[in-house]
Design brief:
The structure holds 2 protein chains of 2 kinds.
Chain A: E1 4-5, E2 8-17, H1 19-34, H2 40-44, E3 48-56, E4 76-85, H3 88-98, H4 100-107, H5 119-129, E5 130-131, H6 145-164, H7 170-183, H8 199-223
Antiparallel strand pairs in A: 1-2, 2-4, 2-5, 3-4
Chain B: H1 12-15, E1 25-33, H2 36-47, E2 68-74, H3 76-81, H4 86-89, H5 94-98, H6 104-107, H7 120-123, E3 135-141, H8 144-160, E4 165-167, E5 171-172, E6 178-179, E7 182-185, E8 188-189, E9 192-193, E10 225-226, E11 232-233, H9 258-261, E12 265-274, H10 276-287, H11 294-302, H12 318-330, H13 333-341, H14 359-363, E13 371-373, E14 380-382, E15 400-407, E16 419-427, H15 431-442, E17 471-473, E18 484-486, E19 493-503, H16 506-514
Helix pairs in contact in B: 2-16, 10-11
Classes of the chains: A alpha+beta, B alpha+beta.
């Protein structure tokens, strides 16, 4: 179990909401998609890969087999699902510092939502309703959301420059090359491993690596 | 200011950077408690000479400015030794309880900065019980002879404990000798006192201003929090002092009872060695290639010009610097201070003036993190009204900075002299403030859209050639220039020791000394 993969953290939060309020939330989500200006704050927080809010009716929870006991649910639920870079604290804090009004708008009608300011009750609300991630995989563990965007910029601009520069004189090439670099001056950061998110997560990771090395050595021994 | 703080309850070093108040020399002394009763008696005796944050004056009924000051702080083990109950101890922050050495992987204290290279006093801390660092005492003085007077007084008090409190040895001195104290002092240049550190930069300009400090009111512009109307407001007191409301409108987590934590704070002590020879060589090498020349390049590392601290956003090139200098020379002291501190990054969102990896932009980004991609390639712009307040991502990451340079540079081509900075940072939450800035902004760059690129001066640049460190010095997006890329940045600054401390209020200090802390 880990909520962390590479530079990303996965957060799932399921909070109960009375079904008649859920309709209002759906309306707010619809408006937010229709008028994306409302999401400027969210988009400006560059640590976010992805964030999604979904309303789940009590009948919409997965029932995978006959043997699975049927649960009796009293509420409709709001599922919040997000992938972001950095630590839980960093993410939740950025949200509450930067867009407290937006958070309150989305969660306002949820049962016992304490409002995003003050911080500690909000932290407790999220922690209490968070579902831990059972399996989480990252194909590019060195890449943060910004790095993915930057890499795409570099690839596009470089391919374009390659095409455009075939017939240039030396001076023109130099001017074009400078323009290329200038245009990419916020896309050239080096990608190295993630900073340690917490000491606890770091220690878990270290134990896992050690275990894997031991297993590999053991397997090698058997084959040999 | 709506509320004045209880200045006689708060220790003086919390609200004053003594260097700026006419105390150019300091000595830091560390102690181990061997007997709890004698330890408390020692703390009691010391508490009577502790300098508070009270306002000074020469008038009748006023408290005169002292010739020397004394302040005290405790590491976690000290509180245990002195009999603070478990029910209070569990309320201290986990980072404070763990200690700095235990947090090295978060702080990036690796390679030459890793604890096995620290001064001996820090190496044995939390390894051998009798060498654990318990008590920190700082002495600051107006003249060297007053410092000696203060130190003699302190030694007398230690003597009286009859071995119950032991002064710890193990600070490296000027000639490699091992000393029982750490000295620090301002750097002199041509016989004149300066506010510079050993690389030649003016230090400590942008110390935060927060609610309730009477002698900081005039210093607000550029040092508080940036407001939507372009003005500055003092930060919430609870960002720096426990028991007061913080920027999240609540009291920061703190131990009980309230009397133990209120008006106290956490202090981060770090001894940072400066590799002057490496710095000079690197600056020379790239200064000869950098389009604006060596001094502009030096300014790009930090975001300020070395000679007078002029911020790059106000003086981005040689011509603008000449104009700044003329105005600066003609200005009175108050205007001078404002010229150095009162600026924003609003007119430099792309970093063409002050690079994204420059020291001051990383340590205190002001409102510049409220940014999105600009319209031109290579440009960034303000994301207007995106956040609740422009400094939303900065206001909870500020640090009070205290401390002075130590040692002397005798040979600017060498790294191995005794020269650096003893920095003491104060904040209400070590994890949210100091450790965050150190890890995310100094040793990493994602918030600055710079991937793993580090802050140029303080970053723990890799000594491994396979993972070289670089920085991009941005240019104006509408210019014809290319950004200058600093390759293979060497490590300019190395950690030589440090620990987390709790700076109690006067009330808490007396309670600890009397052994009467009780959260029941």
């Amino acid at each position: 179990m880990s909520n962390i993969a590479g530079k990303a953290y996965a957060m799932n939060v399921i909070t109960p909401i009375k079904s008649y309020w859920a309709w209002i939330n759906k309306l707010i989500f619809w408006a937010a998609i229709k008028f994306p200006g409302a999401l400027t704050g969210l988009i400006t927080l560059s640590l976010i890969h992805y964030a999604r809010w979904v309303i789940l009716k009590d009948s919409e929870f997965p029932h995978l087999a006959k043997e699975q006991p049927k649960e009796k649910l009293h509420y409709t639920y709001m599922l919040f699902f997000s992938n972001f870079n950095g630590s839980w604290d960093q993410y939740v804090d950025s949200f509450t510092f930067a867009i407290p009004g937006g958070l309150d708008l989305f969660w306002k009608w949820n049962i016992r939502y304490p409002k995003s300011v003050t911080l500690t009750p909000f932290h407790k609300y999220i922690r209490y309703n968070q579902i831990e991630t059972i399996h989480y995989y990252s194909a590019y563990p060195l890449a943060a959301a910004n790095d993915v965007k930057a890499a795409k910029q570099v690839k596009t601009a470089l391919t374009q420059f390659h095409q455009d520069s075939q017939t240039l004189s030396d001076d023109e090439f130099m001017a074009g090359y400078k323009t290329l670099l200038r245009g990419l001056q916020h896309d050239l950061g080096d990608m190295y491993p993630t900073p340690i998110v917490t000491m606890a997560a770091y220690e878990v990771q270290e134990r896992k690596y050690k275990h894997e090395r031991e297993q590999a050595a053991l397997a090698g021994g058997e084959n040999g | 200011m709506t509320q004045k703080l209880e200045l006689t309850d708060i220790q003086g070093n919390v609200l004053r950077a003594y260097g700026r108040f006419g105390y150019p020399v300091a000595r830091y002394v560390f102690f181990n408690i061997r007997d709890d009763r004698k330890g408390r008696a020692f703390v009691d005796a010391i508490s009577k000479r502790v300098t508070t944050a009270v306002e000074w004056g020469d008038g009748p009924g006023q408290i005169k400015q002292p010739d020397w000051t004394l302040n005290i702080a405790f590491a976690y083990q000290a509180l245990k030794e002195l009999g603070v109950p478990r029910s209070s101890l569990i309320g201290f922050s986990p980072e404070f309880i763990s200690g700095m050495k235990d947090r090295r992987d978060i702080l990036g204290d690796d390679g030459p900065s890793s604890p096995e290279h620290w001064d001996p006093i820090w190496c044995s801390n939390r390894v051998e019980r009798d060498k654990d660092i318990h008590i920190f005492i700082s002495l600051n003085a107006r003249l060297p002879q007053f410092l000696l007077e203060a130190y003699q007084w302190l030694l007398g008090e230690v003597d009286k404990t009859g071995g119950g409190v032991v002064q710890l040895d193990g600070h490296r001195g000027d000639n490699g000798e091992i000393l029982p104290y750490q000295d620090s002092h301002i750097v002199m240049e041509n016989g004149q006192p300066t506010a510079k550190e050993h690389f030649g930069y003016t230090d400590g300009i942008s110390d935060p201003v927060f609610e309730g400090v009477p002698y900081d009111e005039a210093r607000l512009p550029g040092r508080g929090k940036q407001m939507p109307n372009g003005k500055w407001a003092p930060l919430a007191t609870g960002e720096f002092i426990l028991g007061h409301v913080d920027e999240a409108h609540e009291y920061p987590p703190a131990p009980e009872p309230v009397l133990l934590s209120r008006n106290g704070t956490y202090m981060i002590y770090r001894k940072l060695h400066e590799n002057v020879g490496t710095f000079e060589a690197y600056l020379e090498e790239h200064g000869s290639k950098f389009p604006g020349g060596k001094e502009l390049l030096a300014a790009k590392f930090v975001g300020r010009w070395r000679d007078n601290g002029a911020p790059l956003v106000s003086a981005p090139d040689t011509a603008a610097k000449a104009k700044f200098d003329a105005d600066f020379a003609a200005a009175d002291a108050k205007t001078k201070d404002k010229m150095l501190s009162d600026f924003t990054y609003d007119n430099d969102m792309s970093g063409g003036k002050c690079p994204f990896s420059a020291h001051i932009r990383r340590i205190n980004p002001r409102a510049s993190l409220e940014m999105v991609r600009g319209d031109k390639p290579g440009a960034m712009k303000i994301s207007t009204d995106a956040f609740d307040t422009p400094g939303a991502l900065t206001n909870r990451r500020r640090l009070l900075r205290r401390g002075l340079p130590y040692g002397e540079v005798k040979d600017r081509t060498r790294d191995d002299g005794n020269h650096g900075i003893v920095i003491m940072m104060l904040n209400a939450d070590i994890n949210r403030q100091f450790e965050f800035v150190q890890q995310q902004w100094v040793n990493y760059g994602n918030d600055f859209i710079a991937a793993n690129d580090k802050e140029i001066i303080l970053g723990n640049h890799s000594v491994d050639d396979k993972l070289p460190s670089k920085a991009v010095l941005q240019v104006e997006p509408d210019s014809n220039e290319a950004p200058y890329i600093l390759p293979k940045i060497p490590r300019f600054v190395e950690t030589r020791g440090g620990e987390y401390f709790f700076v109690p209020s006067m009330t808490a200090l007396r309670m600890i000394a009397k052994g009467v802390v009780d959260p029941t």
